[in-house]
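In response to a reviewer's request, we include the raw inputs and outputs for one of the modeled complexes. The two entities were modeled together in a single run.
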Amino acid sequence: MISGAWICLLSPLAAAGLITLAGERISRRGAGYVATLSCFVAFGGAIASFVGLLGRDGGHRAVVSTAWTWISGGSYHSGFEVLIDPLSVFMMLVVAGVGALIVAYSIGYMDGDDEERRYFAYMALFVFSMLLLVQGGNLLLLLAGWGMVGLSSYLLIGFWHERPSAIAAAKKAFIMNAIGDATMALALFLLIKKAGSVEFGILGGQYSSTVATLVALGLLGGAVAKSAQLPLQTWLPDAMEGPTPVSALIHAATMVTAGVYLIVRTHSIFEAAPHVADLAAGLGAGTLLVAGLIALVQVDIKRVIAYSTMSQIGYMFLGVGLGAYANGMFHLMTHAFFKALLFMAAGIVIHALADEQDIRKMGGLRQVMPRTYLAFLIGSLALVGIFPFAGFFSKDSILAAAMDRGAYGYVLWAAGLAGTFLTGLYTFRLLFLVFWGEPSPFVRERFHALNRDVVGLSLAVPVAILAALSVVGGWIQWAPLWHPIETWLQTVAEPTVTPKSWQEGVTSALALLFGLGGIYVAWIFYGARQRRPVPRFAFPQRVLEHKFYFDEVYDAVFYRPTVWAAKGFYRWFEEPVVDESSNSLGQDTRDLGRLVARAQTGLLRTYALAIASSVAVLAIVFVAVR
Amino acid sequence: MMGPGTAWYLGVAGFLFGVGALGVLIRRNPLIVLLSLEIMLNGGNLALIAFARHLNNGDGQIFALAVMAVAASEVVVGLGLIVALNRKRVPLDVDRLSSLRG
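The model returned the following structure tokens for the whole complex.
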């Protein structure tokens, strides 16, 4: 079990190292196979850990394996250790499993790219970083993994480095994430000062409410940045500049859900600071509405899915903020299935249309790629939460949990239901626009590049597996009837809310109704044979197209003042003081040198005279002094 | 101790040194400058040997021998330079060899 966890952690790192060091000695395709194999090995290790934990009874399902003492100073020690407990194993299975499928998909998707080896090395590095994040046995290692997923995300968003927009998106993602990393580091400093340790265990200790609130706020800052929640959400849509499998793996299935994992992992500090937990839930609710609204007007197929990712992570934040940890984690898992599926199906569409992502140019793809349509349909139904697809089971249980939290809970519950309607609307707007109707002229012209439905096994098999998981994955837990995930995670994070059966029932019915309502509205405007014209409201539309002006506000509040200040310092300080002083220092030295250079006449006899007279003077002085 | 006193020897040595120094300073032909340098060195040698005799100590003579060795090497280098200059048709005038002027 312990060796399984270490194999799980280290095999992607070994693959990244191997691909990097081997260089051109392995073929591009070979690099893909190495990365994929390492991820499947990691998945095997995760299964071994899972089986090992199953063999133990509930109270003993937390094993720490320390490789060596990593940092030690005074009374402070922190080991390089992995923690194997139900939560980390759950995440290992999701990360390694979905990761392996997506890396396998990448073999087909990235085929022919000039820098395939670099891509696969980065992918393997990312999987390692993510596994380090979820397996790290203390907060410091978690933060190390946290930073490293940020790094690999940066590298992969900017993978096509000849595109200026990709570089800008990569920098934006990195800087936004760095804000979260910084608040997390501050929280850790405070913890080290107060408790002298960064073990997970100390989070349950007794702290004054101020300390607990500050630590929880710091951790929440990290979670919000990594998971693209309000107000640090603006990097995620731009991150779609990366290759599509990257969007599927990092910006849908695994990395962006790390914030949810963090809150569950550190739930005791959030329970000690209930206001911060409420804030997390509120931010989640706000994000799911904002992202759902923005998704309604986006025209880039990947950006629509990206906003839907933000929105779904909003649900998870809502759940874990309220204390429905198992429900949040369950939604994390099903979301990884169906969102990766949607991204990968979108990737096939983009491939088939020679890298076109604008949905206004698409249409009628159902007729030419029926199997991709089926996969996309399954993903969409699961996303909206239609029975019996995966999202139905996981999303509704989060909303039901909200009903158990008094008035504030009801506000969040209503927001979540409204979000369900929006989900149905934007998801099926996308589906109808891309797949329904007659093939557009653009599609007819571009599509001939690809006569088959799906390009090769590498693309088809992972999509098929994820489609199957999106259908059956939700049946693992049906909240009032059976709940293995809740039982499994109980020893790590005991839920603080327990919805009653009638609440589950009412929520499921309403959520289903709202989701179907959204689909119906989308059908009226985008899917029906006699479509109604889409109503246009100038002002709201402008607001949505500008994504609620977040970018503009950040630009005005942070970017421009910084640039102004920098220009001011340049104009009033650097130029007159720094530059001028060093320039005049150089000038003065040169003048002095010119003066001294006059002594160098080049005439041998003057030198001889100088030497002789100096010696004479010295001799006289010597004699006189004596 | 036979012969003139040490002061006489030192007088001759100082005279030789002075003549050499004057030659170095006022002559412009590098060959003569080199010659004058040799005279200066010999003045120094004479002083060393005079002191060796005065103090009844052989060290000064050893110094003089060392100076001779150095002088011989210096002449080799100096004459080599002068020959090289002459081959390149550079005028043999130390005042015109002034390209190191700052």
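As requested, we also summarize the result in words. The longest strand of chain A covers residues 63-73. The mean pLDDT of chain A is 86.
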